[in-house]
Amino acid sequence: MAMVPQTCSSSCQCVAAANLGSLHLEYNQCGVGAFCLGGCDPRMSFSIDSCMPAPVCVDKTFRTDTLDRYRDHEHYLGDPKDVDWVGQGEPKIYNKNLLLTMAPRSVGTVLASTTYMWYGTVKARIKTGIGKGVVTAFILFSDVKDEIDYEWVGVDLGTAQTNYYFQGITDYTNTGNITDLTNTYDNWHDYEIRWTPDEIKWVVDGVERRSKKKSETWNATSNQWGFPQTPSRVQISIWPGGLETNAKGTVDWAGGVIDWNSDFIKSNGYYFASFADVKVECWKTNNPPGTNKNKSYYYTSTVGTNDTVVDGNKRTTLKSMAASGLDMDKDLDGLDGAAFVPGGTAGGGGNVPGSNGAPAGNGGSGTGSAPSCKTTGFSQRCDGPQGSNSGGARGAERTLGHSALAAIIGFTGLLLL
């Protein structure tokens, strides 16, 4: 039986009848199963316990020469023991490196770590994508939408764009560009995010290129620090910022409308970004915030700040895709598990670079959610005009939201509606 995903917001939580978690990215969908795992926002869910606890930080080097420890999100139930990455799209291995691919008219590929990082250092060796509208991303992204990121636009191969956000609040004055890089498509560069309770540092090829202190982020209006502070997943992706159905500001920021018939596509079958040597070093502390002594992270309040995070021993696994944080052992009972997975499969096929073939995929567009909420039986919907975020430093209306994961999964979710 098909299930139309509910939508949600902080003032329009998922309905009680469904006991739903909320995979709250920019498209604000409610559900069970995968909706209640990584990315589930407790502020938007029916109950703060609807979201599953998240696996704590582990010092780890992620292998990029095999897909043995990767699972598509529709086959992952929350146990990180044998799975490092969960995602959507078409990741491939080529020359012992991980390729994230974006076939024609697809929405690319995104991978997210199964364990979370509550401060620490993450580093990756990357060759970015190339071409108009092609965006590569390497970010930290929390369930309450704290974010620290690198992004690269495929027409500017000398620049890495950096940003940070607190709980998804749009403020593009947080942007800072790292320039004078040698061609980021042709050359490997080592990118790091060094994140402590007091400061963020962006480090490229061993050299600190930008920093931001928490003490510089006080917001007198909201009376809080606008500083990323909650457990986050590592996310790597390639996505079509230049999709022709995107907002004009997004397309302009991404370097123009993406060319699905480019010589690059004809030669390779897809756009791609290459990743190697992804490594996480957890923050070392005996007292919170930032500990990783136990099994799982979970929230005690919808305030969603670091003093509401517990490093505890709650379970992180679901029995089936029909389960949620409120009933972890619920069986499918003959229902279609696909109904409990956000979105669909992103991307298409393709061959390793240097070979021909350009299989077609699907396209879509992202939209915002509106505040007026109505509940009718099982389903909930938010009516009103669809909107977009307005950009500042980038000069872009980014209806895709802040993260590449939001963009990709948001697209694929809309393909099913």
Automatic annotation (TrEMBL):
PROSITE patterns the UniProt entry points to: GH16_2 (PS51762)
Indicate whether Signal appears among the record's keywords. Answer: yes
Q: What does the protein in this record do?
A: Dual chitinase/transglycosylase that plays a role in cell wall architecture. Chitinase and transglycosylase activities are coupled. Required for the polysaccharide cross-linking at the septa and the cell wall. More specifically, transfers chitin to 1,6-beta-glucan in the cell wall.
Q: What SUPFAM superfamilies does this protein map onto?
A: Concanavalin A-like lectins/glucanases (SSF49899)
| Region Disordered: start-end pairs | 346-396
**What keywords are annotated for this sequence in UniProt?**
Glycosidase, Hydrolase, Signal
GO BP annotations listed: carbohydrate metabolic process; fungal-type cell wall organization
Q: Name all GH16 domain ranges.
A: 47-262
The name under which this protein is listed is: Concanavalin A-like lectin/glucanase domain-containing protein
Give the record's family classification: Belongs to the glycosyl hydrolase 16 family. CRH1 subfamily.
Q: Which GO terms describe its molecular function?
A: glycosyltransferase activity; hydrolase activity, hydrolyzing O-glycosyl compounds
Q: Which domain of life is it from?
A: Eukaryota
Tell me the Gene3D superfamilies matching this sequence.
2.60.120.200
Q: What is the lineage of its organism?
A: Eukaryota, Fungi, Dikarya, Ascomycota, Pezizomycotina
Task: State the GO CC annotations.
Answer: fungal-type cell wall
